[in-house]
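Lay summary. Proteins are chains of building blocks that fold into shapes, and those shapes determine what they do. In this project we predict the shape from the chain. Here is one chain we studied, written as its sequence of building blocks.
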Amino acid sequence: MTTPPHSPGRLPAFNIGLTHVTLPTSQVQVNRLTERINEFTLGASVIVIVLSTITDQASAHPVETDIGRSRFTWPTWQGVTIPEAHQKWKAVFVTRDRTFRGIYYEGPTPGETQTIHVPGTLVSDAMWKMVQSQSCAVLCTGLSGDPSSAEIRTALKGGMLQAVLVEALFA
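And here is the predicted shape, written in a compact code that computers can read:
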């Protein structure tokens, strides 16, 4: 599920896609998100928000932007364990219309706080249940274009992705 197109004449610096994975764990893992504890057991499903760089269709090369893999300095994720929890990044969902609205980073000062808005993306019933029961999501980067599930799996196995577990905020 990819966020809807942005306004004509104003392309986003990256695509944001929503998918989900079942995180296989051999034991219960605990990641602290603010004052909450999220416990994942064998086979827990979680929403993954994939931030990928836009690909220039004419040249098939990523568009150079200041928002890319180097901007999000998250640890490498191979999908076999739950990503490390990150206290500063958040995923924002709106309860009224069950949409994903973007992510933000709580900087140490107001000037360093970043908000990345996206057009409201309707979350499927299954994904909505996941995010409500887990109260978290995985933010992931390291791809370009509009990746398919197979491309995401391949990137996970190849160690090409970076990811963090973040708190889901409901507005």
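What the prediction tells us: Residues 23 and 82 are 7 Å apart (CA to CA).
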